[in-house]
Specification:
The complex is a heterodimer. Chain A has helices at about 25-35, 40-55, 70-100, 105, 115-145, 150-165, 165-175, 185-195, 210-215, 220-230, 240-265; strands at about 65, 70. By secondary structure, chain A is mainly alpha-helical. Chain A has one domain. Among the domains of chain B are: about 5-75 and about 145-215, Rossmann fold; about 220-275, 2-Layer Sandwich (Alpha-Beta Plaits). Chain B contains eleven helices and 13 strands. Chain B has a six-stranded mixed β-sheet with strand order 5-6-7-3-8-9, with helices on both faces. The longest helix of chain B is centred in the middle third of the chain and has 15 residues, at about 160-175. The chains are: A mainly alpha, B alpha/beta.
C-alpha cells in the first residue's frame, strides 16, 4: 500500500464550480449535437418549412389581406409556431432519452447541479426552437410572398420564440413521465392533435361546435391566438394570456414535481 | 478516512439490500468489494457516491457528504450503469465532462492515460464496450480525484480489454490514489487489491488481505505420510479441524496449519509433509455460499464486523 499522496490538488484547494457547473462549453457541445441530429432537423426544420411552402404560397389566397399583412404571412407565423413547438418539446423531452441511456446518472458523478442541468436542457430546447423559427421566416422572406410591416416580423418571431417556452416545459414534463427513448414519437402525434385543436392548420370555424368548445382549453390554443395578434391588430383577449400562463404553470410545475422525485429517488 | 460508512442499511421495499455495513477505508488503500450478485456491492457504492441515500446509518467521504465530495472533484467513479451520449465523439464527451468541474486535468492528458488517445475522434456509438469503459475511466480522471470508485469495471470486456483496463488502473494507482472496486471476479480482487472486503447478503462477512481471506475460509490442508494413524489422535492436535485417512496418507484440514505441522514433525513419525492452501475461489464459495456455515475461528485477525488490519485504525 502506498502512503504517499502524489495528487497535486490539496484538499483545501478543491472547490465546487460556479453556477452549479453551467458553462458555455456545454452549451456549444449541446448546440452541435442538436444541429448534427438529422432526424431532429427533419422534424423541426424541414417539415415546418415544407408545410409553409405547401400551404403558404397558394395564389388562391396567399395575397389576401390579413390584418396588417397578408394570409401568406399569417400561415408563415403558424408554421413557425408549429416548428418551434415541435423543436422545444423535443428539446425538453431529451431528458427522457438521457435518462433512458443513463447519461443523467453519469452526470450525477460530476459537480453539475440538477438545476443547472435543467437550465442547459431548456436553453438547448430554445436554441432548437429558434433554429426552426428562423428557418421558416428566412424561407418566407426568400419567397417574397408573406407581407407585413418590418417590425411585425420581429414582434411575431419573438412572440413565437418566447411562447415556445411553454412547450419546452411540456417536453420536460413528458420526458420525466415517459422515460423511454421513443417518447418523441408519442409527443409528435400529440402535438399534431394540439395543433388542430388550436386552429393552427385549419381554422376552428370549420369544426363542429363541441370540438371548438373543448379546443379552447387545450395548451396551444391561447398561444396560437397570441402569436397572430400583432399581425391581425385586433387586440389581445385576456383568455389567451390566461391559457398560455396557466399551461406554462401546469407544465413547469409538473416538471418540477417529477424532477424532485427523480433526484430524490435514483 | 477516505470513506467512512457506519451501520449503513438500505431497503428497497421489503428487500434489505444492505444490512448494517461498517466500512472505513484509509487514504491510499486499494480495496476490493467482493461478493456474488445481490450481495449489496452496487447498493453500497451508490451510497458512497450519494446516488442513493441509505435507509439508516452514516456516510462520510473525506469527512463530508458524498455530494460535496463529488462537487469538489474528490471522488469519481466508473459505473456499469453510467450511460454515454452515443452521438458525441470521445473527445467531446470528455470536454463536456471537463467543463463541469472547477478545475480539471487537460482533456488530451486523460485520454492518453486511459489509453484512448487513438480513438479521440470516434463517435461513442462506434466504441466497443471496453473502449467505452476506458472512456468512463478517462472522465473519472478529469478532476484528479483522491478516491476512485469502480463498480464491476470489466464486466462484458474480453480478456484483452480487461487486461488493458487494469493496466491503466494499476499505472494510475501507483500515484497514490485510493481505489475501491466492486467485483465478482475473484482473481481481480486477488490480483489488484491490498484488502478484500467480502460481502454476502448485505453484510460484511470478512475483511482482510487476500491471503488472510483464503486462510480464513478454507484454512490449509496438511498432508503427510504416517503409518497406523488413528483419527481420534489426529483430531486432538490443536488447530486440526477435520481428518481424512487414506492408508498411510493422512490429510488434516487445519485452521492453524503451522501448529499441526509442528506437532506432526516433533511428536509423531510423520514424513513427506505438504501444506497447501485452497484457492481463493474455494474461499469465496465457502464464505459467500448460501449454505456456508461460517464463523471466524477464535483469535483470527479478520472476521465479520471486525476491523481489518489495513483499515479502521481510527476507531
Amino acid at each position: 500500500m502506498s502512503t504517499s499522496q502524489a495528487n497535486v490538488v490539496a484538499l483545501e484547494d478543491r472547490r465546487a464550480p460556479a453556477l452549479g457547473g453551467f458553462n458555455l462549453t456545454v452549451m456549444r457541445i449541446e448546440a452541435r449535437r442538436v444541429l448534427r441530429n438529422r432526424r431532429a432537423m427533419l422534424g423541426t426544420v424541414v417539415l415546418p418549412v415544407a408545410f409553409f411552402l405547401l400551404f403558404g404560397l397558394n395564389s388562391a389566397y396567399a395575397s389576401d389581406k390579413a390584418g396588417h399583412g397578408n394570409v401568406s404571412a399569417f400561415i408563415m407565423i403558424s408554421m413557425a409556431l408549429y416548428g418551434a413547438v415541435i423543436a422545444t418539446t423535443s428539446g425538453g423531452a431529451m431528458v427522457s432519452i438521457e435518462r433512458a441511456q443513463g447519461w443523467s446518472r453519469q452526470l450525477r458523478l460530476t459537480p453539475l447541479s440538477p438545476i443547472a442541468y435543467i437550465v442547459i436542457r431548456m436553453l438547448s430546447a430554445l436554441v432548437l426552437g429558434l433554429t426552426s423559427l428562423l428557418a421558416v421566416y428566412i424561407v418566407g422572406l426568400a419567397t417574397g410572398k408573406p407581407s407585413m410591416p418590418g417590425y411585425l416580423w420581429f414582434v411575431t418571431g419573438l412572440t413565437v420564440w418566447v411562447g415556445s417556452l411553454i412547450f419546452a416545459a411540456f417536453g420536460l414534463f413528458m420526458g420525466y413521465l415517459m422515460p423511454t427513448e421513443n417518447v418523441m414519437q408519442v409527443l409528435s402525434f400529440v402535438l399534431v392533435l394540439l395543433s388542430f385543436a388550436a386552429g393552427l392548420f385549419v381554422p376552428l370555424s370549420q369544426f363542429p361546435h363541441l370540438f371548438r368548445e373543448i379546443a379552447a382549453y387545450t395548451p396551444l390554443y391561447g398561444l396560437n391566438y397570441l402569436v397572430h395578434a400583432p399581425l391581425l391588430g385586433q387586440g389581445v383577449h385576456l383568455s389567451w394570456v390566461i391559457s398560455a400562463v396557466v399551461w406554462l404553470a401546469i407544465f413547469a410545475g409538473g416538471a418540477a414535481w417529477r424532477f424532485r422525485l427523480d433526484t430524490k429517488r435514483v | 478516512m477516505a470513506i467512512d460508512l457506519r451501520a449503513i442499511r438500505k431497503n428497497f421495499g421489503a428487500v434489505q439490500a444492505v444490512r448494517g455495513v461498517d466500512l472505513a477505508i484509509a487514504p491510499g488503500e486499494i480495496v476490493a468489494l467482493l461478493g456474488p450478485n445481490g450481495a449489496g456491492k452496487t447498493s453500497t457504492i451508490d451510497i458512497v457516491l450519494g446516488l442513493s441515500a441509505p435507509t439508516s446509518g452514516q456516510v462520510t467521504v473525506y469527512g463530508m457528504t458524498p455530494r460535496k465530495a463529488i462537487e469538489r472533484g474528490l471522488v469519481s467513479a466508473v459505473l456499469q450503469t453510467g450511460g454515454l451520449l452515443k452521438d458525441l465523439t470521445v473527445t467531446e464527451t470528455v470536454q463536456y465532462t471537463a467543463s463541469l468541474f472547477a478545475t480539471a486535468n487537460p482533456v488530451r492528458d486523460v485520454l492518453h492515460r486511459a489509453g484512448i488517445a487513438a480513438i479521440a475522434d470516434r463517435k461513442v456509438a462506434q466504441c466497443s464496450g471496453g473502449e467505452q469503459q476506458r472512456l468512463r475511466f478517462a472522465m473519472a480522471l478529469l478532476p484528479d480525484p483522491d478516491l476512485l470508485i469502480l463498480d464491476e469495471p470489466t464486466t462484458g470486456m474480453d480478456v484483452e480489454g480487461r487486461r488493458a483496463f487494469w493496466a491503466a488502473i494499476r499505472q494510475d494507482a501507483a500515484r497514490g490514489r485510493t481505489v475501491l472496486f466492486a467485483t465478482h471476479y475473484l482473481e481481480e480482487a486477488d490480483a489488484y487489491a491490498d484488502r478484500i472486503v467480502l460481502l454476502r447478503q448485505g453484510t460484511v462477512v470478512a475483511d482482510g488481505t487476500a491471503s488472510e481471506i483464503k486462510a480464513l475460509a478454507a484454512g490449509r490442508t496438511v498432508r503427510a505420510t504416517l503409518a497406523d494413524a488413528r483419527e481420534a489422535d489426529l483430531l486432538a492436535i490443536p488447530g486440526a479441524d477435520s481428518v481424512e485417512i487414506r492408508g498411510d496418507t493422512v490429510l488434516i484440514h487445519a485452521s492453524d496449519s503451522d501448529a499441526v505441522a509442528r506437532h506432526l514433525l516433533t511428536s509423531t513419525p510423520a514424513r513427506d509433509l505438504e501444506v497447501t492452501a485452497r484457492g481463493i475461489e474455494d474461499a469465496f464459495i465457502a464464505l459467500t455460499g448460501d449454505d456456508a456455515e461460517f464463523g471466524p475461528p477464535p483469535g483470527s485477525p479478520v472476521g465479520a464486523g471486525r476491523p481489518g488490519p489495513a483499515g479502521r485504525s481510527d476507531r
